[in-house]
């Protein structure tokens, strides 16, 4: 990402979006989009890179074997998740297979938004503090917060097959949400009504855009400077 550090200055700003599992990152990302912020999802990129025929897919099959495949040939994400969740060696191996491919996808999207003249891009990174090296190149980090107990309950609500112990284990596998809250530059409190979460996001967006000069304005200023230079040259 160091090649795109310029995007944090005048033309485009990269912002990190993170939080704990089931804290509400996806909902906050949707509200950011409604307010004109481009959002890139590392989860979506992770699914993309393990589609059949993709480099990540081939690497994962080479490492874990065809036993993790569904009859359709797709990777069984539940079976793969069970293999890596309680096994640090398998988890590290999976990360080495897919993280470089995810980074490539995200970089391509960043470059595309830079070319388009997008002013602000939020990169949704669930494990931003745990295993991501993009932090130095982010202008700021948004943490979506709810309590650890809310995380567990929400996780069980959206995954009917999870027991309370399994849900708690997944919450505990990440950096404590209270620690993430301390580290964030901006905190969206998602412990209450969603309407209050929406209000917080709406209030935050203008601050995220402070100081950004849209590419269109840079081009106009450049053309004006060129015009002044030509006129000045003819006068003298």
Question: In short, what is this structure?
Answer:
56% of the residues lie in helices and 11% in strands. It is of the alpha/beta class and 236 residues long. It is globular.
Overall, the morphology is globular
Strand content: 5-15%
Mean pLDDT: 87
**Helix-strand makeup class:** alpha/beta
Largest sheet geometry? 5 strands, parallel
Describe the structure.
With 236 residues, this protein is an alpha/beta fold. 56% of the residues lie in helices and 11% in strands. The protein is built from eleven helices and five strands, in the order E-H-E-H-H-H-H-E-H-E-H-H-H-E-H-H. The chain has helices at residues 25-34, 42-49, 55-64, 77-85, 88-116, 128-131, 148-158, 164-172, 177-183, 194-208, 215-235; strands at residues 13-19, 38-41, 120-124, 140-145, 186-189. It has a five-stranded parallel β-sheet with strand order 2-3-1-4-5, with helices on both faces. Helix 2 (42-49) crosses helix 5, helix 3 (55-64) packs antiparallel against helix 5 and helix 7 (148-158) crosses helix 8. The radius of gyration is 21 Å and the shape is globular.
